């Protein structure tokens, strides 16, 4: 079966997989695309034979809503990390912010962050980062099919983005901040769409458990 689960903040993607495995008693459970612990939203879960289609689902475009905080950078590029840089935020007009946001549409070359599940020589980057090791990473060329400014308030920039597989929105947020002449990190990230799966149809894990029990009891 394929399930559209709403991953809450603080949970890892594996936490959701583990919980679904316990609820369904399925031995084979996987997901279609990792969401960082600080992020929330759609996490597509597959069980049994349907785990075979997860890779094709993961290859679909994804849509996110993000909130970027300007003026500081963290080692993880999100609100869970340590502040490693503080920088003055220049006076910005809405038109300037909108122009910078729109400039990222199209092909987007960037490097995977050290705090990520990306593997280098068989080792997850976040494991190396926790040992204060920085290694060379190959650039990623992804595509941003749509990006738009949702709101701007002095040091907060909210935007929506639709992109291809492998796009790191934390890196995108930092790059937007740099282009605005300052530093930044993501304070919120919500995945709202994966291919044809929408957040409006996503089910919270507690509700999923209740529904499963009502069917199987």
UniProtKB/TrEMBL annotation:
Entries under InterPro entries matching the protein: PsdUridine_synth_cat_dom_sf (IPR020103), PsdUridine_synth_N (IPR002501), tRNA_psdUridine_synth_TruB (IPR014780)
SUPFAM superfamilies assigned: Pseudouridine synthase
Top enzyme class: isomerase
GO BP terms, alphabetized: mRNA pseudouridine synthesis; tRNA modification
Protein species of origin: marine metagenome
Keywords carried by this UniProt record: Isomerase, tRNA processing
GO molecular function: RNA binding; tRNA pseudouridine(55) synthase activity
Protein name, per record: tRNA pseudouridine(55) synthase
Matches recorded under HAMAP family: TruB_bact (MF_01080)
CDD domains named in the record: PseudoU_synth_EcTruB
Enzyme Commission number(s): 5.4.99.25
Annotated Pseudouridine synthase II N-terminal domain residues: 23-169
Pfam families attached to this UniProt entry: TruB_N (PF01509)
Entry annotated with the keyword Isomerase: yes
